[in-house]
Amino acid sequence: MAQARQPHDLLAASSVRPSPHWPDAAKALYGPARMSAQRALIAEEVMAFPGAFTAEDLHRTVGRRAEGVGLATVYRALAAMQEAGAIASVGERDGSALLARCGRDDHHHHLVCTTCGTVVGVECPLDHAALAAATREGHLVTSHEITLYGVCAVCRDQKDAG
Ligand SMILES: [Zn+2]
Ligand SMILES: [Zn+2]
Ligand SMILES: [Zn+2]
Description:
The protein is an alpha+beta fold.
């Protein structure tokens, strides 16, 4: 079917698709990275996690709301959020990185509750004395990762009550 011809400027204007307005909170997680409807949904699900989650956890919750969002898409979205500093790797579970939103940008470590996933930032337990063993071995330590896993106070209370 032939379309009615339009004046040139009208045609140009109508071909400009309105840019979608993603929620600011979702957009903020990606920094300057590209947004899409799937990424907005993924961000909403990230914000819904009270504590730590893996890419697989997130893929599962996103899958409850939308079909066809691949694990690779979730990985790429998470990488963009990490790049933007909105989420951090706080440990691991079953070989997958545990991720969480963390507002701190100073050097710190995390307590992760293995029951509810709550994440708490804690001061670095390493000092010069702790690094002395590495120094004696002739190693120059350039970075370290420490995550403390356990059961949080709320989960412990519930266990006692139950
Ligand atoms: Zn943190
Ligand atoms: Zn807990
Ligand atoms: Zn440290």
